[in-house]
Description:
Elements: H1 2-20, H2 25-33, H3 52-58, H4 64-88, H5 93-138, H6 143-153, H7 158-172, H8 177-187, H9 191-206, H10 211-234, H11 236-269
Helix pairs in contact: 1-4, 3-5, 4-5, 5-6, 5-10, 6-7, 7-8, 8-9, 9-10
Amino acid sequence: MSVFGAVAAAVSVVLVVLGLTPRSRVAARLNALRRPGTKSLGRLRAVHVIAPATLRASGFSIAIEQLVAAKIALALVGALLAAVVALVVPIGPLVIAAAAYGGFILPSIVVERRAAVRRSEAESATASFVEWTHALVLSGRPVDSAMITLARRGTGAPLVDDVLARAADLYTLGAPLQPTLIRESRDAALGSLARLAERLERARELGSGSISVLEDAREELRSAARERLLQSASEVEGKMTLILTLCYLPALALLVVIPLFLTLLAGLFG
């Protein structure tokens, strides 16, 4: 049993190292030129464990197959730890399977939460970007020039800054700004920025001004921000109630209820 545990631990460590090792761009391009049969982890790409857009939004510089390898490694580690505990405490095979399942889904939970946080930051940065663009256009700057200037400056959100930087680089090479921004925003799953670029492109095709488009987008983003703040504020009361219950109810039971109960028992049997 000890030999089996040592082998399983060694396999888990190797898989964790393979899963967490960052992949360079040169290696990725060389692997793309090889035949599918020569890829050591190429078959793991076919396993759909998470959306590629979510993995890109998380900011982790890993590929899908490395994420799958990390999930398998953590599943083995969880099963191994549960098996070790089962040698001392009779927990049963269901607990071992649950530990393996928890280790398997843990990387996906981390990636999805990281992507959700970065997308929330991107929404706030998009609202700031619209505000700044509106101010520059209102002062007399063309909308393309204003957006390129802000793209070079950055917004502070990595997702938005990457999209704006790619769009600005392609615009410098001669590509139209708004279609490029639409494509890059959709690839990064930035819906607000893609809708802004679509409206600006439609306004240009119709020959209307961009000020009204920016004003409408600004008001929509402000309304969305207010709704998010109101929703967060509405959840504070429930969270505070839960915290107070978990923190003060045990203390109340230990300091008041239990001594009172013991006093009553002493009065009854004394």
